[in-house]
Structure formats: structure tokens, C-alpha cells
Design brief:
3-stranded antiparallel sheet; phosphorelay response regulator activity; 235 residues; 11 strands; two-component regulatory system; Rossmann fold; 8 helices; globular; phosphoprotein; alpha/beta; Sig_transdc_resp-reg_C-effctor
């Protein structure tokens, strides 16, 4: 039996949420709706959520804080921010704290559905491995595309779907430059029309996670071109 994709709508506006929920349900998604940020954080932490549609203007805590907390808590599923704000600062901050995409209100439901499908195609939201899971024998950084898992020595590193896809591309040609254009096309969509800041924000989060895990590599920004994954001895 196929389990429906679970979408959590975090939206306090009763004029927006019900039609959005109905539309998603007609598309075959299992949908829950909550109206407060703290409730959303608790629900996501309980597991089983594949995609979050997150409003920024919530009545208790800001949607950016929700995004920050759930990413820090290990959530690796997709997050699309929905907001009436259209400022560049909010957009960049949203990406920095872990959002995968960003739509300004009012938005067309068809566009939202298209972005959700594109994100979910990339999003194999894998739960963090249990402690008993077998660790790889090799030391250093290991990227396993088949299982969509990353290890630094014997410790698994939790990353989002897009962070993983970025690392796979960089690791495939370790030491060579991968252009922003290729990252945008392969990780997002060949028809992606959003900001290239998505790439920079995702790489920034990935770089921080690798550094915190003590990975013997670094991601170098090749100005005006793209990024290169290098062993630290070669960097």
C-alpha cells in the first residue's frame, strides 16, 4: 500500500489555508494544517512530514524561527516559505535558515503545486539513521548516492535533500569546479526561475555542517564561476 506524501501547512489565515488544503488533498497529498509556529515545530519533530508550506507571519513565533528550529532539530524534508513579505532581506534570511524555496503572496496555486512537485521529486526525506546502522569502513568523507547518506569517518551527517544533491555533484568531480548554472539546473530544475541565492544559501549550510562534523574537506567559492570541493590538504 502506497503511503501518501504528508504535507504540513503552517498558515494562520483562515482565508488562505482551507482552499490551499483542499487543493493539496485533490492532488493526492495527506495534509495537516496548523496555525501557530510552536505547534508546527512540535508536529515536525514528531516525524512523518515530507513537505512544509510555511507562512512567515504567524501569531506566536516568526516563520523564520520555525524554519531555524526544525532544521537545527534535524528535519531534512522540504520547506517552502509562503509570505506577504517581498523584501530581499527576508528572502535571503529565509534561505540562510534552511528554506528550500520561497513564494510571495499572492501566488498561483498551479505555481505552488509545480514547485512542491519539483521539490518532492528531489526530496527523499530520509530519517536519520539509527545508532546501530553500519558505518562505512573508509575514513574521511563518504557520500553514498544509492542510500542518500553522508558520513564523516563513522558519523552520519544529516543534510537536506538539496544539500545532499549539491554535495553529490561536487564530490563526483572533487577538485574541479561545478558552475552555479549546473547546480541550479541539476539540483533545482532546468526551468528554475528563482534567485541564484538559493545555491549560495544551500552551499553555505552544507559547508557549515561539514565543518561542524570535522570533515577533511572544504567547499571553495570560485568567484563568478561556482564551487569546488577540495580535500583540506589540497585546499
Amino acid at each position: 500500500m502506497t503511503v501518501a506524501t504528508q504535507v504540513l501547512v503552517v498558515e494562520d489565515d483562515d482565508k488562505i489555508a482551507p482552499p490551499l488544503v483542499r487543493t493539496l488533498e485533490r492532488e493526492g497529498y495527506a495534509v495537516e494544517r496548523v496555525a501557530e509556529g510552536l505547534t508546527a515545530v512540535e508536529r515536525i519533530a514528531s516525524g512523518g512530514v515530507d513537505l512544509v508550506l510555511l507562512d512567515l507571519g504567524l501569531p506566536d513565533i516568526d516563520g523564520l524561527e520555525v524554519c531555524r528550529r526544525v532544521r537545527e532539530g534535524g528535519y531534512v524534508g522540504g520547506i517552502i516559505i509562503l509570505t506577504a513579505r517581498d523584501g530581499e532581506l527576508d528572502r535571503v534570511v529565509g534561505l540562510d535558515v534552511g528554506a528550500d524555496d520561497y513564494l510571495s503572496k499572492p501566488f498561483a496555486l498551479a505555481e505552488l503545486l509545480a514547485r512542491a512537485r519539483a521539490l518532492l521529486r528531489r526530496s527523499a526525506a530520509v530519517e536519520p539513521a539509527a545508532p546501530a546502522a553500519a558505518a562505512p569502513a573508509a575514513a574521511g568523507l563518504r557520500v553514498d548516492p544509492a542510500s542518500r547518506r553522508i558520513w564523516v569517518d563513522d558519523t552520519e551527517v544529516a543534510v537536506t535533500s538539496k544539500e545532499f544533491d549539491v554535495l553529490v555533484l561536487l564530490d563526483e568531480v572533487r577538485g574541479a569546479v561545478v558552475t552555479r548554472e549546473r547546480l541550479t539546473s541539476d539540483v533545482w530544475d532546468e526551468n528554475w526561475f528563482g534567485s541564484t541565492k538559493m545555491v549560495d544559501a544551500t552551499v553555505g549550510r552544507l559547508r557549515q555542517k561539514l565543518e561542524e562534523a570535522g570533515a577533511p574537506v572544504q567547499i571553495t567559492n570560485v568567484r563568478g564561476v561556482g564551487f569546488r570541493l577540495e580535500d583540506q590538504a589540497d585546499a
